[in-house]
Write a structure and sequence with these properties.
By secondary structure, this protein is of the alpha+beta class. Helix content is 27%, strand content 30%. The chain is built from 7 helices and 13 strands. It is globular, with a radius of gyration of 23 Å.
C-alpha cells in the first residue's frame, strides 16, 4: 500500500526533521476553513425523545417573516410541521430534529443530541491519502485538499512509518520529562458514512478512537488514511494541541518525494 501526503514545502519532513502532529479536535475545529477537517468528525450522538415544543402563534407581528408566512400557509397541516422543522434546523445549523404535531402550536420532539466531549482528550493524527493512479483520481484529490499544499511525499511502508513516528513521540515525551505515560495507537481508512450528521448510537463511543475515522460524504474525495496516537499521563493532564515528533534518518526516508502521474 502506498500513501501520499501533501503539505507546504517549508513543512516537509526533510526540511523540519520530523512531523507536526495535531489533535483530531483541531481538525474538527478548523473544519471548512482549512478544507481538511470536518466539523462533524468525531461527533457522537444519543437519541433524546419525549421533548415538548410549544409555540404561541398570537400575536404574529413579532414572529420572523418566514415563520409567519409558514404559519399562514400551512397552519394545522403536516407541511406546517415540516417547514417549522426546517426553520429550526437552519437556525441551529443542525437538521437532526424530528417533530410530531399533537395540536395547534404543539409538538413532541426527538433529536440526536451531540455528546459533549470537551473534557475528553482526542488523539494526535497523521493524515495521508491513497496514492492516485490516474490523472482523474489526482485531480479529484487535488481539488479536495487545500491549495496551499505544494509538496507531496509517498510512503510505502506504513507499519514502519507508524513505528518511527511513535519513537518520535517518545522522544518528545522525554524532552518534556514525562516518564509515566500510556500510548494507544490506531490506524485505518477514514469512512464517509453520513451526509449531514452521524446517527445516534452508544454514548460511550465518545471514548473510542474509532469515532475519529468518520467524516461526511462531502469529504470522500480525500480518500484519507489516518495514523492516530492517544497520549495520557498523570504527570501532564493538559497535553498540547500539537507536538513535534522528531524523526531519525530512517524515519525521514519513509517520506519519499512524489509527483503525480501524467497518465
Amino acid at each position: 500500500m502506498r500513501l501520499i501526503r501533501g503539505c507546504e514545502k517549508q513543512f516537509l519532513p526533510s526540511e523540519t526533521g520530523g512531523v507536526w502532529l495535531s489533535k483530531a479536535s483541531v481538525y474538527r475545529r478548523i473544519g471548512e476553513e482549512d478544507g481538511v477537517g470536518d466539523r462533524r468528525e468525531g461527533e457522537v450522538r444519543k437519541k433524546e425523545e419525549g421533548g415538548h415544543l410549544s409555540v404561541e402563534w398570537e400575536p404574529r407581528d413579532g414572529l420572523p417573516p418566514a415563520l409567519r408566512s409558514a404559519i399562514e400557509k400551512h397552519e394545522g397541516s403536516a407541511a406546517e410541521t415540516e417547514e417549522f422543522r426546517a426553520l429550526l434546523a437552519a437556525r441551529d445549523d443542525d437538521p437532526d430534529l424530528a417533530l410530531q404535531r399533537i395540536g395547534r402550536g404543539e409538538w413532541t420532539t426527538s433529536q440526536n443530541v451531540v455528546v459533549n466531549d470537551d473534557e475528553i482528550a482526542s488523539p494526535y493524527l497523521l493524515c495521508l491519502a491513497r496514492e492516485p493512479t490516474t490523472r482523474e483520481e489526482w485531480e479529484r484529490l487535488r481539488a479536495a485538499l487545500p491549495e496551499r499544499y505544494d509538496a507531496w511525499t509517498v510512503t510505502a511502508d506504513i507499519d514502519a512509518l507508524q513505528f518511527e513516528i511513535e519513537c518520535g513521540i517518545k522522544r518528545w515525551l522525554a524532552t518534556e520529562r514525562i516518564t509515566r505515560y500510556r500510548i494507544e495507537r490506531a490506524s485505518g481508512w477514514v469512512t464517509y458514512p453520513f451526509d449531514d450528521a452521524p446517527p445516534s448510537g452508544d454514548p460511550t463511543e465518545v471514548f473510542r478512537m474509532s469515532r475519529w475515522f468518520r467524516k461526511r460524504t462531502k469529504y470522500q474525495a480525500q480518500a484519507e488514511y489516518r495514523l492516530a496516537w492517544s497520549l495520557s499521563s498523570d504527570q501532564r493532564v493538559d497535553m498540547p494541541e500539537t507536538i513535534d515528533a522528531e524523526l531519525t534518518r530512517t524515519g525521514l526516508r519513509l517520506f519519499e518525494p512524489w509527483t503525480p502521474s501524467s497518465g
